[in-house]
């Protein structure tokens, strides 16, 4: 695929974390905006592709940024060429990230770097024990003593790359900018803003060049978002499906569901595309929308992932047809709905979700969703479980999600987790179940009725394997590797 005569839109948006979701979501909204011709995206990969994975930025660059979005419903496929990405580069091209951020025409940075990519500690602040992040900070401190732009290159973490780019913008006097995290993290705007300010303060403390932190506070408007579109990893024959249906040769098509949702809160001081034209909603308070989505959709996904894998299911569509799991998901939805504002109509959202989960043509693999469970259970299940426990109620759906995560480790399922070292340590502790629960929240589970019910659940799910001392192979996820 190549661009023909139509000129590409000017580059005014920068994206970090060029994967499937960005192309199914933000790039698609941008291409459908009324003013799409004015807004081109320069997209950067994140970490180096894993062995066997496609190099998406390289493949997209060979196609002038064009790709096919396959919207897959129960009834069939719709194929659209998305043209909003005007340049694609590998993540390590920090010289280009800096150059684009230092350009006053760049108005917005979007991010889909995965939850682990933010490199947060359990308290929600930046993980200042992370060696890669510390190395990026040290580089930035040294760079503050020199005016050479090359000194601002070479960061390996996403926060380090963003911070270096913002420092380049500050030095260029290129003005304010909006930062739009589009990852499934509760309070993603506050987490990104707090993280960047804390990291900038670390740089300022050892640097010589003035205050990056106060520049950020005045010039970086961090948007909070709720993002929703189920976008599984593309199956190997998707390119062939596209070729047969459209005659086009596309090395990196994306498959997604027809449904899409984007809710944003915050100011865009240098402008933005008219995303509302494609259905985006700009609100004063995104938090209730975000909780609804993270609890009802992602929480149910986590429940299905661990309980479904334990029951030998492979995809979400298979797991939701299992009557026991479906009842558990419906139970979880009722538990979560009690803590959502009534005007968000959680019941209608859940009904629609059930249909989305049952779309068997979208092959969303439980193994993909199961990654990084220690953080996801903490963020997506525990807030509801705590609230239910405080109200003196049992919460069987939430309790099953926790028990299934523990049991999946105890049964030796090969799970990827960014906190893989901690999980492995917990698994080889004298009391692995206690240690795994303590990783999530010691106070919630130690000597409490909810803890007792979860332990019973683990015993039932682990069954015959209970005597085994070790969990399965736990691969470290993203934070354990250089980005
Ligand atoms: N896929 C979905 O259905 C969906 C829906 C809503 C939100 N999201 C959010 O988008 C994120 C990405 O999903 P995707 O489907 O595009 O995945 P993907 O694997 O296709 O792409 C992930 C991108 O993030 C980069 N990345 C991975 N780990 C990183 C790290 N530690 N540091 C920096 N960059 C890193 C990768 O290089 C890649 O560019 C999810 O983690 C989630 O937070 C996804
Ligand atoms: O992307 P994650 O790893 O946060 O969670 C896996 C899925 O639950 C998630 O990707 C959903 O499909 C998505 O959030 C739907 O909008």
Automatic annotation (TrEMBL):
Reactions it catalyzes: D-mannitol 1-phosphate + NAD(+) = beta-D-fructose 6-phosphate + NADH + H(+)
Alphabetically ordered keywords of this record: Oxidoreductase
Residues covered by the Mannitol dehydrogenase N-terminal domain: 12-276
GO molecular function: mannitol-1-phosphate 5-dehydrogenase activity
The keyword Transcription appears for this protein: no
Pfam entry (one): Mannitol_dh
Keyword Oxidoreductase attached: yes
UniProt cross-references to PANTHER family, sorted A to Z: MANNITOL DEHYDROGENASE 2-RELATED (PTHR43362:SF1), MANNITOL DEHYDROGENASE DSF1-RELATED (PTHR43362)
The name this protein goes by in its record: Oxidoreductase
Organism: Serinibacter arcticus
């Amino acid at each position: 695929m190549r661009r023909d005569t139509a000129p590409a839109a000017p580059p005014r948006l920068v994206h970090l974390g060029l994967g499937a979701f960005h192309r199914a979501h933000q790039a698609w909204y941008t291409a459908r905006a009324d003013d799409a011709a004015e807004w081109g995206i320069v997209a950067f990969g994140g970490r180096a592709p894993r062995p066997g994975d496609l190099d998406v930025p390289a493949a997209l660059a060979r196609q002038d940024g064009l790709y096919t979005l396959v919207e897959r419903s129960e009834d069939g496929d719709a194929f659209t060429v998305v043209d909003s990405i005007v340049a694609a580069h590998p993540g390590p091209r920090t010289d280009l990230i800096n150059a684009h951020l230092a350009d006053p025409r760049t108005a917005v940075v979007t991010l889909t770097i995965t939850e682990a990519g933010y490199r947060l500690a359990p308290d929600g602040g930046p993980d200042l024990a992370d060696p890669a992040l510390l190395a990026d900070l040290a580089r930035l401190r040294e760079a503050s003593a020199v005016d050479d732009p090359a000194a601002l290159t070479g960061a390996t973490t996403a926060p380090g790359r963003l911070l270096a780019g913002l420092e380049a913008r500050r030095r260029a006097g290129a003005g304010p900018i909006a930062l739009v995290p589009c990852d499934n993290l509760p309070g993603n705007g506050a987490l990104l803003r707090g993280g960047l300010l804390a990291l900038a303060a670390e740089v300022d403390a050892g640097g010589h060049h003035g205050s990056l932190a106060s520049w950020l506070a005045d010039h970086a408007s961090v948007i909070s978002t709720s993002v929703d579109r189920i976008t599984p990893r593309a199956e190997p024959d998707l390119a062939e499906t596209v070729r047969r249906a459209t005659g086009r040769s596309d090395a990196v098509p994306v498959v997604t569901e027809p449904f899409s949702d984007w809710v944003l809160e915050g100011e865009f001081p240098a402008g933005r595309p008219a995303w509302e034209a494609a259905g985006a909603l700009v609100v004063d308070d995104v938090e209730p929308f975000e909780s609804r989505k993270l609890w009802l959709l992602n929480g149910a996904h986590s429940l299905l992932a661990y309980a479904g894998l334990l029951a030998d299911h492979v995809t979400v569509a298979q797991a939701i047809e299992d009557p026991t799991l479906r009842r558990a998901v419906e139970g979880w939805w009722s538990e979560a709905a009690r803590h959502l504002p009534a005007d968000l109509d959680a019941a209608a959202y859940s009904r629609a979700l059930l249909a989305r989960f049952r779309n068997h043509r979208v092959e969303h693999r439980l193994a993909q969703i199961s990654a990084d469970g220690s953080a996801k259970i903490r963020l997506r299940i525990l807030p509801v479980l705590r609230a239910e426990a405080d109200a003196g109620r049992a919460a069987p759906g939430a309790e099953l999600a926790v028990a299934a995560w523990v049991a999946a480790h105890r049964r030796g399922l090969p799970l990827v987790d960014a906190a893989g070292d901690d999980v492995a340590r917990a698994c080889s502790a004298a009391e692995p179940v206690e240690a795994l629960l303590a990783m999530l929240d010691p106070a919630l589970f130690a000597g409490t009725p909810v803890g007792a019910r979860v332990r019973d659940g683990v015993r039932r799910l682990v069954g015959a394997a209970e005597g085994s001392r070790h969990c399965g192979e736990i691969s470290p996820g993203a934070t354990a590797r250089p980005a």
